[in-house]
Amino acid sequence: MRLDHQFLQSTLHTTPAHPIVMGSLVGPVPFKAVEDDGDTVTALPERLWEEHAVLIAALPSYTFVGMSNTKLCLYQGFWIYEGLVPAAAALQRRFAPRQSDVVVASLPKSGTTWLVALAFATAARHVHPPSAADHPLRRLNPHQCIPFLEGLFAVGHEGKLDALPSPRLMNTHMPLAMIPGAVPASGSAAAGGCKVVYVCREPKAMVVSLWHYLRRVYPELSLAETVDIACEGTMPYGTFWDHILGYWRAAAAAPESVLFLRYEEMLRDPDESVRSLARFVGMPFSAAEEAAGVVRGIVQLCSLDSLRGMEANRTGYMDPRVMFPREALFRKGVADDWRSHMTPEMAHRVDGVVADKFRGTGLTFP
To answer: With 0-12 CB in 10 A as exposed, 13-18 as middle and 19+ as buried, what is 142?
Structure first.
């Protein structure tokens, strides 16, 4: 994924303006309502790439084999897309969440889109009942409903977040270390921070899903190459074990601030996963909602089959500059698909890394 100087410069606005005032609206509202207003920008300095050029030049970097125009940099122990290094630095310095915020976090291809949809449908259910014909998820891609933090901070557009009424939902693939404001160091909610919901997927399944996704733009990329970067720790946002364990340990230390979900458990019991999500963000389902089937309605609205059938998810691209088709987000959504693709040697290699890196952490992958 090319996120370089030319890309960043092409997306910057040069005419500052005041953020939209959303009046008395209560969030969450679909982010596309703010995203479409091109005048809603931050007043922060615009030349982000130039500000970080020296930093980026000094970082270890490599060009991903099979994706010759994709450069990753080792920033504070994690391999970050070159164009997102300024975002990581900006998030560390400037991300100041409201206590009512909910950050949906994950490694790529770990159930992100499904959790984004479930989180939005759950939090917005009083304004947008899941059965409503005009529900935002019936006309928008889930990622148009929730802002992508590093995408905004990479180009200095975090002011768009200020235009959203509370509670705000947002999404990130960044490791927890890049969003220190989200979880207070003391582990106490009284110290600030917000709610973080993290979804983790079995590593072999995550690697296979990542390979399928990247091949939509880089068809020459092999599964063996994708296994290599995962096991060597050089996959985007990796190492994958440090990424996962950062959130795992935070959830253990501050369960009121971080909810750690397992993708495979969500597949087995999506209804209970939605209930857990709602309780965690402080919006538990009432007895009347349970009786009316609201939980089941949210699960059905956000199911892979339902989302795959929406026009907004069948056409268009996640970003027209990169050309990842939206429909690539809705491939299978099942557990153990890796068995159809990985050789026994590949699976054994990933399992060996997992056994080594997760030993003694309490986190296992049956």
So the answer is: buried
Please tell me the pTM assigned to this model: 0.86
Could you tell me the strand order of the sheet in which 61-63 lies? Answer: 61-63, 71-75, 78-81
The backbone torsions φ and ψ at residue 73, rounded to the nearest 5 degrees and listed phi first, read -120, 145
**SS3 call for 138:** helix
Give the per-residue pLDDT at 328. Answer: 53
Q: Active-site residues: which are they?
A: 173
Say how far residue 311 (Cα) sits from the centre of its chain. 22
Calpha distance 65→228 (Å, rounded): 10
Taking only the tens place, the pLDDT of each residue in 235-271 is: 999 999 999 999 999 999 999 999 999 999 999 999 9
> Do 43 and 14 touch, CB atoms closer than 8 A?
no
Alpha helices in the chain (DSSP H): 5-10, 32-35, 48-58, 85-94, 112-123, 142-145, 149-154, 159-162, 203-215, 223-231, 240-253, 263-268, 270-280, 287-292, 294-301, 304-309, 311-314, 344-357
State the angle between helix axes of 344-357 and 203-215 in degrees (0 to 180), rounded to the nearest 10. 120
Beta-carbon contacts of 265 under 8 Å, excluding residues fewer than 6 positions away, are 273
Edge-to-edge strands, sheet with 169-172: 169-172, 102-106, 195-200, 258-262
For the stretch 111-158, pLDDT in tens is: 999 999 999 999 999 999 999 999 999 998 898 899 999 988 988 888
Helix axes 294-301, 112-123, angle to 10 degrees: 140
